[in-house]
Design a protein that fits this description.
This protein is an alpha/beta fold and about 270 residues long. Helices cover about 40% and strands about 20% of the residues. The longest helix has 16 residues, at about 165-180.
């Protein structure tokens, strides 16, 4: 990933992604399903991050913190003395300071080149951030998070898979539904990138790549975070019966964690440092 590409990502989030719109939400929030029918499911999946963290400690790193935009994100550091927010976007850190105040330290930096000493943190989280690096730098980012973790501690990382099985299965149905509703069909490339922030660089990995390139270098565990993409939620989950359907989905994700972790949209990747 070139410095020009990183500059593009920084400028997007400084100027667009982390700017609040008229409804008080960040522009980036439109890539999330914020409807009432999905609210409980989204809330419970965000809290799954705690399953990958040791809940107490001194310093926790939030790598690619953004503005710590959702209330559930604040929970991750409740048992820590300080949350160190690192982001490439100055605007993100300004917003994060407004949201968590003196509980945080705020550092402008690069996920693939963390400006911290070895074993500086008792925990780490990274939410939807590493995919803004080129795939060739993903290993570097994981290695850096692993390097700054204290021995015996864990990091919880959430990112989306590239073309996961459930999304591939849903696309023909979505295409048919679009046609029946009179809406034009979207090309495959547009389908698979609908949730990606326009104007930003995104490159996602597959479970096979993660196991081969990351799992061979450090101890990881792949858990389910949220199997339903925003696109699938918006097309298939409706007010009538939607909450019940999502309760069943959440239960299934818990009962069959391996399947949903590797075939749904968003895994929770737990990095463990012996």
């Amino acid at each position: 990933m070139t410095n020009d590409t990183k500059q593009q990502v920084r400028e997007f989030y400084d100027e667009i992604g982390w700017q609040q719109e008229n409804d008080g939400l960040y522009q980036n929030a439109r890539y999330e399903d914020l409807r009432a029918v999905t609210r409980d499911y989204i809330h419970k999946t965000r809290l799954r991050v705690m399953k990958g963290l040791i809940p107490t400690g001194k310093f926790i790193l939030d790598a690619g913190s953004g503005p710590v935009q959702y209330e559930e994100y604040k929970v991750y550091s409740q048992g820590y003395q300080k949350r160190v927010c690192l982001d490439i976007s100055i605007q993100a850190l300004r917003e994060a300071r407004e949201r968590i105040g003196e509980h945080g330290f705020f550092v402008v930096g690069d996920l693939a080149n963390l400006p911290f000493m070895q074993e500086s943190f008792d925990g780490a989280v990274s939410m939807h951030a590493i995919h803004h690096l080129a795939l060739t730098e993903h290993l570097r980012a994981y290695s850096e998070i692993h390097r700054v973790l204290t021995s015996g501690r864990t990091a919880a990382i959430v990112n989306g898979w590239h073309e996961p099985f459930l999304s591939r299965m849903a696309e023909p149905l979505i295409g048919l539904m679009r046609k029946l509703s009179g809406r034009s069909a979207k090309k495959k490339k547009e389908w698979l990138n609908e949730e990606d922030a326009t104007g930003t660089f995104v490159q996602k990995m597959t479970p096979e790549w993660l196991k081969r390139e990351i799992g061979s270098k450090m101890t990881i565990e792949i858990k389910p975070w949220r199997s339903m993409s925003t696109r699938i939620l918006r097309w298939f989950v409706h007010p009538f019966g939607g909450k019940t359907f999502l309760k069943i989905v959440f239960w299934l994700e818990s009962v069959f964690p391996k399947f949903f972790a590797e075939n749904g949209q968003y895994p929770l990747i737990v990095v463990k440092k012996p």
